[in-house]
Every structure is written in C-alpha cells, then in structure tokens.
Amino acid sequence: MAKKPVQFTLNGSEKATFVEEGQNLLDVLRRGVGDLTPKYGCAQGTCGACTVLIDGEPHLSCLTLAETVEGRSVATVAGLENGAALHPLQEAFMRNFAAQCGYCTPGMLMAAKALLERNPRPTREEVVEAISGNICRCTGYEAIIAAILEAAGSGSAASKGRG
Amino acid sequence: MPVHVETHANISDAARALSSARDGRFFGGGTLLMRALNEADQSIGTIVRCTDPVLRQVRSEGDRIAIGAGVTMAEIMANRDLAFLAPVARIIGGPAVRSAATVGGNLFAEPPYGDFTTALLALDASVRFAGESGQSTPLQDFLRDRANRRGRVVESVMVPRITDPKALRFVKVTRVKPKGAALMSIAAWLPGSGGRGCRIAYGNMAPTPVRAAAAERALEGASLSEQGIARALQAATEGLTPPTDMFASEWYRREVAPVHLKRLLLGQGQ
C-alpha cells in the first residue's frame, strides 16, 4: 500500500510522518507519532473518546482522514499539561471526581477546551451540548458538567495548553 | 483491499476522476465514509477528494441560496443567511461531528442519518452537480434515484431564501437524549398563511427522506389549528410504508407520526 508524507503541528511541535491511504488520524497519532492520549473507542464517531482539536475545532480523529491534517494544527490532551502543572480543566476534573475509568476523559477534556476557547462563560445547557457527542459509561455526566463549569468559572481554562 | 485516495484541486477534475474510478466514492466530511473504511468496507476502491473552494461557498442566486456541498454543519450554524437552517444543523451529532459533516454528504446518508436532507426536501431544495451551470435537479428526483448518483460530484444545494425562521419547522424524534439517532424526523415548510403551499417531509420513514403528500394536500387552505390540521393528521402516513428497524417498528412509527406532526404544526414544544 502506498504511503504518503504528512506534516502537521501536534501540540505546538512539528511532526512529519508517513500515512497509509485511507488511514485515520487516530491511528496515526497513536501508532505513527506515539501520542496515546486520544483513545480508540468505537471507530464509528459515536463515543467521542478520540476527540482532538484541529485548528481549534473539535474533530473525531477516528473519522478524520489522516492526510487531511497536512499543514494544520492538531491538539490533544498531551498538550494540556505544562510540566508538572495540570491544565485548569484537568484540575477541575480531579476536584469534581469527573473521571472513574478515565477512558472518556481525553475526549471530554478536548470537547470542553473547544467550548471554552470560543465561549469562556458557558451556561450549563451549552456545556451539555458541547459534550453531547461524548459518551461516559461510569462516572455519569453530572460530575463532568460540574467540572467544566468550575473550570470556566476560574477564567483561565480556555487559553492554557499547547497547540 | 487497499483503498486509493486521490485529491483534486479542481471540481471538474474530481468529477472526471470519480466517474472513471472503479468502486469510487466521493469524500465529503468523512463522518460516514471513514466509518465505512474503519469497518473495512470492501466495496470502496477509490476515494476522491476535492479541495476546490467552490465547494465551501455560500452565495446568493436571486431568491435562492447556493450552499456548497462541502459546507459543514458548523458553518451552517455560523452563517447568518442560513439562520433558518441552524436549528436543523444543531441537532446533528455533537460539535465534533458538525465540524466535519457536510451538506453534500448528508444527501447520501442512509437511515438513521440524513436529517438535514429531510429539511432540504421540505424546502424544495435542488441539487447542482459539478459542471452544471444554471441548472439543477429537484431534490425529490435526486433522492428517487440516489443510489445511481454516487458516481457524480455534487457542487451545491439550492434552497429558497427564508427570512422568517418560523417558516421552517423541524423535529428529530429520538429515544436517547440529548443526542441520538432519529427514529423519525419531520420538517415542515409553511411559506404562506396557514397551511397554504406547505411542504412536509419525513426522515427515516422510508429508505430516503420522503414527502408526506397526503398530509400536505389535507393542509392546503386549512388553518393551523387543532380543527384545521385534523384531516392532515389522519393522513400523516398515508401512502407510506415505514420500516421496522432497531429504532422502532412500523406500527410505532405510524402511531407517533401524527403526534409529532401535530406538535410541529401547532408550534407546541417537543
């Protein structure tokens, strides 16, 4: 199978790799460049565990044709923390017990980051809508919604993080 | 079978490539096609992509608006001229789906998807293929022969310019809140006073979105009151054979269609 060269920015760092024709971005992130933070859930666009930001917009990496990120900027949870310091969203998730098994958490965090970047003071309804494409099957949604609202209240969740 | 991906900068080149490709499929936003690839769909041999800006344009053409086939649901929601379609785009998936899902892709979406196309059908939209200037195919005709249209590239969808956002009403009926696949969607365009000239379309009541022709006839000249719409509700599923699938049975769909149609026509909360 022919491979194609692709260059993009991942959490602020330049990446150059080869992708297979038809390969999805999630596969390239995890196996190609070693970023294991986006999770493989359903590969159908149903669960949201693989949500990443492409040029600031939320996208399902499992449904993104990898070669379409050529020249674009991709952000994952790996770019949220800054050294030992967690991102305010991550802090809020921790304080609100918004993760149990944690598998949905990377997708929830990136969906929340996308929301807060364009709407730093969302209402509860807007938070629910923002994570409406992300499924959680153990914690339940209330703690997650509370965490996102708390992070929004801190006022610093939108701009932090790399990429 | 390995898949081959071709990217073209010009829509004419993409159209030629698609028509000559063996087992070719056009790539819109990827929400349906990538899913098929992830599931190793062996029927796909070639994927044709197109980066021509014409696919991303929204422009006025007289009293109609041409929406490029590559315009996403998120872009529909952000476009003031398309405010009447924003509530329909908003109910499609979560934000990450809406960043990718396109108007053109939705035209080909099989049940339980294709809610946006249901609204387009109610709006008397028409489809313009690549290379066609000035002419277009009524969406109803397009849908009747949809399976055979896969070999052609859709350039844009033409819709009427609607200034009263209440003229287009839409409901997506799901069992899962806040988002889930529709067991039925209903769109009603009410361009005149009362039911005059109304167009009603159902999604997931047939293999493609379909008009509720009998209900439309019953509404002609009627007022949008409980009494005025009574005959239309009786005729809500006349001439249709709703499917039985994992979301609902034919019986259930027949039972609830008039209930949701009534709420829609009377403007009652869904």
Task: Annotate the secondary structure layout.
The complex is a heterodimer of chains A (163) and B (270).
Chain A lengths: L2 E8 L2 E8 L4 H8 L18 E4 L2 E4 L12 E3 L12 H8 L9 H14 L5 H7 L10 H14 L9
Parallel strand pairs in A: 1-5
Antiparallel strand pairs in A: 1-2, 3-4, 3-5
Helix pairs in contact in A: 2-5
Chain B lengths: L3 E5 L2 H10 L3 E3 L6 H6 L7 E5 L7 E4 L2 E5 L4 H6 L7 H5 L4 H4 L4 H5 L7 H8 L3 E4 L7 E2 H6 L9 E7 L7 E7 L7 E8 L9 E5 L6 E2 L1 H7 L10 H5 L15 H17 L4
Parallel strand pairs in B: 1-3, 2-3
Antiparallel strand pairs in B: 4-5, 5-8, 6-7, 6-8, 9-10, 10-11, 11-12
Tell me briefly what this model is:
The complex is a heterodimer of chains A (163) and B (270). With 163 residues, chain A is an alpha+beta fold.
Q: How is this structure best described in words?
A:
The complex is a heterodimer of chains A (163) and B (270). Chain A has 163 residues and is α+β, with helices and mostly antiparallel strands. Chain A folds into two domains: 3-79, Beta-grasp domain (Ubiquitin-like (UB roll)), CATH 3.10.20; 88-154, [2Fe-2S]-binding domain (DNA polymerase, domain 1, Orthogonal Bundle), CATH 1.10.150.120. Helix content of chain A is 31%, strand content 17%. Chain A has a five-stranded mixed sheet, with helices on both faces. In chain A, strand 3 (51-54) and strand 4 form a beta hairpin. By secondary structure, chain B is an alpha+beta fold. In chain B, 29% of the residues lie in helices and 21% in strands. Chain B contains eleven helices and twelve strands. In chain B, strands 4-5-8-6-7 form a five-stranded antiparallel sheet. A four-stranded antiparallel sheet of chain B has the order 9-10-11-12, sandwiched between helices. A three-stranded parallel sheet of chain B has the order 1-3-2, with helices on one face. In chain B, a hairpin with a 7-residue loop joins strand 6 (126-129) and strand 7. The relative contact order of chain B is 0.12. The mean pLDDT of chain B is 95. Chain A binds chain B through residues 1-2, 4, 21-22, 24, 43-45, 48, 51, 54, 57-60, 62-65, 67-68, 111, 114-115, 128-134, and chain B through 2-5, 7, 27, 30-31, 34-35, 37-39, 47, 49, 74, 90, 93-97, 99-100, 178-179.
